[in-house]
Fold this protein.
Amino acid sequence: MDAIDALNEIAFLLERDLAPRFKVQAFRRAAGAIEGLSASELQERIEDGRLAHTKGIGDRTLEVITQAAAGQTPDYLVSLREKQADAPASALASALRGDLHSHTEWSDGTVPIDAMADAATRLGREYQAVTDHSPHLTVANGLTTERLAQQLTRIEEWNAAHPDDVTLLTGIEVDILEDGSLDQTPDVLSRLDVVVASVHSKLRAEKTVMTRRMLAAVGHPSTAVLGHCTGRLVQGSRGTRPQSEFDAKRVFAACAENDVAVEINSRPERQDPPDDLIALALEAGCLFSIDSDAHAPGHLDFVTLGAARAQAAGIPAERIVTTWPLPRLRTWLDAKR
């Protein structure tokens, strides 16, 4: 197989398995190190030992490249494929057409827009929203108004150059500030396809304060999706974090009234909302958005985990906006602009 394809697939599978970033980056760096080499040039460098001394190539990546160049599927790739061999996708996972929450290196993601778009295309997505963070979240390199404008131009250029690939939607994961306002100007928000509103600070605020804050955000005319509503962490390298306290019945009633989708955040460490709140949102008549919250290409596949939770909760596909074809989705989103 192609050596670059092998290296990138390994990186994807490691990301899906939440491997440490340095381990993933080793394979992406190796792919970059041999990019542009013809098959004959690559073979020559393997045989004369130059590849082993090339910056960005380590023992494991050299083994992968050597085996791929010899026409084999690299042993390491085979082992990862076997480890992650999936059961057949659920009916709901198969119905998903896109994803409304992902990050790139413009904020705290790990790869450029192009790499996320390429991965979404390979996964068969019809659309993928790019929703990097807003300015208030400086720890995540949140986008200023000026940087966001630059990103919108880049996304427009990518879509124009790739008419047969995934459609990238412009967006933002905008911070819900302490007073319930959104961390961007109304003019900027009105230019975006998708606004995911999330709480990232003061997560332990008193229940009435958090409820008031979330109700204000849900009532904002630009908000399309309420992101990871409890902020909880249930596993992972960052440890655990209890869910925020708020009046879920009131917040979900407001979501239903304002046609705001409740996100089912598919990240394994979040699994947000918990099952009891999903049931409350379903009873309230809410729409849902099954999203990856991807920070790397391999994370895009997390939506299968969210779909399994949604199916177990009995959410009809019709109530999940990420099962809708792009024209219908755009009609819903355009009402927010």
